[in-house]
Amino acid sequence: MDSIIPTVDTIAAISSAIALGKGGIAVIRVSGSKAIEICQTIVKTKSSHAWQSHRIFYGFIQEPQEKKLIDEVLILVMKSPKSFTGENTVEIHCHGGIVIVNRILEIILTIPQVRLANPGEFSQRAFLNGKIDLTQAESINEIINCKNLRAAELAFKGVQGEVKNKINQIKNELIDQLAEIEARVDFEEDFGEFNYSNFSTNLNKIKEKIKELIENSKRNDYLHNGISIALIGKTNAGKSSLLNMLAKQKKAIVTDIPGTTRDTIEVNLTIENIPIRIIDTAGIRYSDDVIENIGISKSFEMIREADYIIYIFDIQKGLDNEDKKIIKKIPVEKLITILGNKIDLLKEKQIKISKQKTFISIKKEVGEEELIQKILQKCGDNKSGNIEILLNKRQINNLQNCLINLNDTDYILSNKLPFDLLTIELREAIKNLSKLSGEELTEDLLNNIFSRFCIGK
Question: Which letter does DSSP use for residue 79 in this model?
Fold first, then answer.
C-alpha cells in the first residue's frame, strides 16, 4: 500500500457503516488544511452559522458543474487543532444507503486538492499530530470490531488512555531504576555500596506486573475475538447431541448409526460475554468409507486448530485405550475438558469422581450448567472482572520483549557483575515499553498498524 504518513493532502472518506438501501444517515469526513474551502465549493446554504468552528448548519450538496442539488445535509466544521485529526475537518451528514453517499464522495474526489483516505489514515493523522497516542488509536479500532459488551468496555478504557497509563506506570518505575544506576556511574563516590539484592527485588516486582498483563492477554483475546471449541470423540459418543443442546436447536443429524457426521458443523453463540464457535466433528474410528475418513481427517485438523477441545466419551464403555490414544494427540497447550456422557444410565455408586473429568447426560439435559461453568472457568471469564485493559498481539509482543530484557538482568545481579551493565537491558526494556504508545516506531511499522483499520477511521 501507499505510505499513509500524513502529507499536505486533504483526504476524504465515508466514516459510517453503509448498507444497500439501508441507514437513516451516513457521515463523510474530510480532513486537511483545505478541507473547509473544498467543501464550500459543493455546499449550498443560507445558514448564518455556516463554516463556524464546532457549529452544525443545514444545507444542500450541489453538483459543481451542473449546479444540481444532490441531497440535503447537515455540516459539522471543526477547525484545527480542535478536531479528531488535529487538522481542519468537515463532516457531512447526509442520507444513508449506498447510492447517495457514494455520489457525494465521488463529487468531493473530483476536486483536485483532495484524495481518498487510506485505511486508518484519519487515526494516524490524529496520532502523528499528538491528539492521541498509539494505544488509544488501536483501542478505537478494537472498539469498532468488538463482538460483546465486556470487550467494548475494556476497549473504551484504552480510548480513555488506561493502556497508556498502565504502561507509563511500569515505564516510570524502570526509569527510576535506570536513573539510580546512571547516577552511581557518574557520581559513584556519593553513594554507598550497590545492593544487588534490593535492586533484584525491585525489578522482580516490576516483572510480576508485566507477567500479570501478559497472562491476562489470553482472556483478553477470548473476550475480544471469541474462542473455538471442537467437539472430539469416537462415534456415537454424543458430540452432535451436545452441539444441538448448547445451540438450543437441531443443527446436527443425530442417529444411532455410527459415522452419521461426515463433515464439520459449526454453531456461533455467546456464553456470558464470550463469543464461542462450537464445531461438531466426525467420530474418530477405523472406517473403510472414503467420505467418512475425510471427515475423520478434518477432526484431527480441528484438534490442531481449535482453542479448546471437549473430548466426549461414552461413560458406559469407559475411557478406553483408543480414547486415551486420541487424547494424547491433543497438544498440551490446548484447553481441554474430558466429558463423560450418558451418566443417566449409570448408578451413582458406579461413578468415580474425578477433577479431570466432567459428567453429563445430554438425553436428560443433566450437567449442562456444570459444563458451561467449566468452559468459562478455563477461558478465564470468571476472572474477567479483574482485567483492567485490553491488549492486542502487537502490544503483548512488546511486553514479552520487555520481560526478556529484564530477565537478562538476572545473571548480572546473581553473579554481582559490574552494575553498570544493567543499563543496557534497562534501556532496551524501556524502549520496548515505549513502542506500545508509539514513541519508538518506524514509518513502515506505523503503515502496517494503521493499514488494518477500516477506511474512514
Answer: -
Determine, yes or no, domain membership for 443.
no
Write the DSSP assignment of 363-391 as a string of letters. Answer: TTTBSHHHHHHHHHHHHTGGGGGG-----
* Residue 373 and residue 399 in one domain: no
pLDDT digits (tens, 9 = 90+) for 11-42: 999 988 766 556 788 999 999 999 999 999 99
- Residue 257 belongs to some domain of the structure: yes
Q: Is the peptide bond before 81 cis (omega within 30 degrees of 0)?
A: yes
Q: Describe the strand order of the beta sheet including 265-271 as a list of residue ranges.
A: 265-271, 274-280, 227-233, 308-314, 335-341, 357-360
Return the number of other C-beta atoms located less than 10 Å from residue 187's C-beta.
9
Q: Please tell me whether residues 19 and 95 are part of one structural domain.
A: yes
Q: Give CA angle at 389 (383, 394), nearest 5°.
A: 115
CB-CB contact of 89 with 35 (8 Å): yes
Q: What is the DSSP letter of 451?
A: T
CB 144 within 8 A of CB 457: yes
Q: Any bridge partners for residue 25, and if so which?
A: 95
43: three-class secondary structure by DSSP: strand
> What is the rounded average pLDDT for all residues in the chain?
80
Render 121-147 in DSSP notation, one character per residue. HHHHHHHHTTSS-HHHHHHHHHHHT--
Q: Look at the chain and report how many structural domains it folds into.
A: 3
Residues 250 and 369 in one domain: yes
Q: C-alpha grid cell for residue 442? A: 518506524
Whole-number Å distance between alpha carbons of 457 and 450: 10
Output the domain CATH number for residue 183: 1.20.120.430
- Please count the other Cβ atoms lying within 10 Å of the Cβ belonging to residue 281: 25
Strands 265-271 and 89-95: unpaired
**Are 209 and 154 part of one and the same domain?**
yes
CATH value at residue 343: 3.40.50.300
Domain annotation covers residue 138:
no
Asked if residue 403 has pLDDT above 90, the reply is yes
Tally the C-alpha atoms within 13 A of residue 282's C-alpha that lie toward its C-beta: 21
> Residue 139: inside a domain, yes or no?
no
Nearest to 100 by CA among 135, 138, 70, 69: 70
Residue type, 55: R
Radius of gyration of the chain (CA): 29
The per-residue pLDDT for 384 is 47
Considering the domain architecture, whether residues 424 and 282 belong to the same structural domain is answered as no
List pLDDT tens digits, range 190-224.
777 888 899 999 999 999 999 888 877 666 666 66
Max Cα distance, the chain (Å): 88
State the residue range of the domain holding 378.
Answer: 230-385
Do 235 and 349 belong to one domain? yes
